[in-house]
Design a protein that fits this description.
Elements lengths: L1 H6 L2 H13 L3 H6 L5 H24 L3 H8 L9 H25 L7 H24 L29 H16 L6 H25 L3 H7 L10
Helix pairs in contact: 4-7, 6-9, 7-8, 8-9
Length: about 230
């Protein structure tokens, strides 16, 4: 209980509220279009996906949410991840900001309904993959660090049987599908930049784990791919 009180600072609570309950509504806040069905679909899916995944993860690993709450303030993060982790967070927000501005100014012609349905399915699958990784992995921190204080060890079950960073893979497909669901060609600019940061972070994290986490190098010999099965 004392540890929980320690990490639940006012700053972490405010950041959590902004990320979970305010950020999903950015497109509608900027555009003023509160009847925007696709934006509502994204906001509801984002909040619902977050809530369900955290409830399921906490039931399986009671201390996981403590670790993730600490990581909001970048506690224990590698020096390079103190730049990359916030960059990913800002990048995901930029997709929503640009989509809202696009809607406000009418820069992009709407995509077809079929394209939006496909993009919504991709986003759902991305959330499912990321949530599966979160639930399966007790050490799914929000920052890159070797969790010696939590007896950090390699996880090889669930989606980790197929790729080494399924959480990032799920996020990747979600980011690329968001501009289509939200009718914004211009939102692909932050989405592609975000993809570059995500690939860089995956590479650096994988090197860190191979160098510092016992058993991870051996794991890479069995599970060959980081993000893209058959490619990388």
């Amino acid at each position: 209980m004392a540890e929980s009180k320690k990490f639940l600072t006012l700053r972490s609570i405010v950041l959590m509220v902004l990320i979970v309950l305010v950020a999903p509504f950015i497109p509608m806040i900027i555009s003023g279009q509160w009847g925007w069905r696709e934006a509502w679909a994204y906001a509801i899916l984002s909040i619902f996906g977050f809530a369900v995944s955290r409830v399921l993860a906490s039931r399986r690993h009671a201390d996981l949410l403590v670790e993730r709450s600490r990581s909001i303030e970048l506690q224990g993060a590698k020096s390079w991840d103190k730049i990359l982790a916030p960059a990913l967070a800002i990048g995901s927000l930029l997709i929503l900001v640009v989509a809202g501005m696009d809607k406000l100014n009418g820069w992009t012609m709407p995509y077809s309904m079929n394209a939006k349905v496909v993009s919504l399915i991709v986003i759902v699958l991305g959330y499912v993959l990321g949530s599966w990784a979160l639930i399966e992995n007790r050490f799914f921190s929000g920052v890159v660090r070797i969790q010696k204080d939590r007896d950090h060890r390699v996880v090889t079950t669930g989606p980790y049987r197929f790729i080494r960073h399924p959480g990032y893979a799920g996020a990747l497909w979600t980011y690329l599908a968001m501009p289509i669901l939200l009718d914004s060609v211009w939102a692909f600019i932050p989405a592609v930049l975000l993809l570059s940061v995500l690939v860089l972070r995956t590479s650096l994290e994988d090197r860190t784990l191979q160098a510092e986490l016992p058993g991870y190098a051996e794991y890479t010999h069995r599970t060959h791919y980081r993000l893209f099965p058959g490619i990388w």
